[in-house]
Amino acid sequence: MHCTNCSETISDLAEICPKCGVRQNKVKNYCYNCGESVKEIQEMCTSCGVSIKKSKSVGSSEGMHPAIPAVLSFFLTGLGQIVNGQVIKGIVLFVVAIIIGFITVGLSVLVTTPLVIIDSYLIAKKRREGKQIEEWEFF
Ligand SMILES: [Zn+2]
Ligand SMILES: [Zn+2]
């Protein structure tokens, strides 16, 4: 493949170009497939037709493993959401879970805890895939 910064031919496995030292797919000056010059806003190379969107591996480095917020949610409702960047949602869920838990003498955790675990897991998974997460996005 070609370096996306300087178009030098580099190994397919190279994450950082040995010539210019730039991490691949951080900049998109050239098509990784054919080395033709492309623009940052292009999603597809007009010379060879390959998709030049940011690769999944780049997105995954931004988010943590989905199991981490899921485990945190198990111990404390809302904590998984907070580490996912949904701070207000996490705090509100925490407060709501306490109120409902108080009313139901703790029985509600059987429902709320699995829900917040699933929610934090799926949101973390989306983040790893490089998707934008809204403050109040669920699942
Ligand atoms: Zn380079
Ligand atoms: Zn190309």
What attributes does this structure have?
139 residues, mainly alpha, 2 domains, 5 helices, 0% strand, elongated, binds zinc ion
What does this structure look like?
The chain has 139 residues and is mostly helical. The protein has two domains: 1-54, no CATH class; 67-128, no CATH class. Helix content is 40%, strand content 0%. It is built from five helices and no strands. It has helices at 56-60, 67-75, 79-83, 87-103, 109-128. It is elongated, with a radius of gyration of 21 Å. It binds zinc ion (2 copies). One zinc ion binds at residues 31, 33-34, 36, 45, 47-48, 50.
How many domains make up the 3D coordinates?
2
- Proportion of strand residues: under 5%
Shape type:
elongated
For the terminal residues, how far apart are their CA atoms?
A: 36 Å
- SSE run: HHHHH
Number of helices: 5
Largest sheet: none
**Unique ligands:** zinc ion
Q: How helical, in percent, are the residues?
A: 40-55%
Global Rg: 21 Å
Low-confidence stretches: 56-61
Provide mean pLDDT, rounded.
Answer: 89
Please give the number of β-strands.
0
Please outline the helices and strands:
Blueprint: H1 56-60, H2 67-75, H3 79-83, H4 87-103, H5 109-128
Helix pairs in contact: 2-5
The structure holds zinc ion (2 copies).
The site of one zinc ion has 8 residues, from loops.
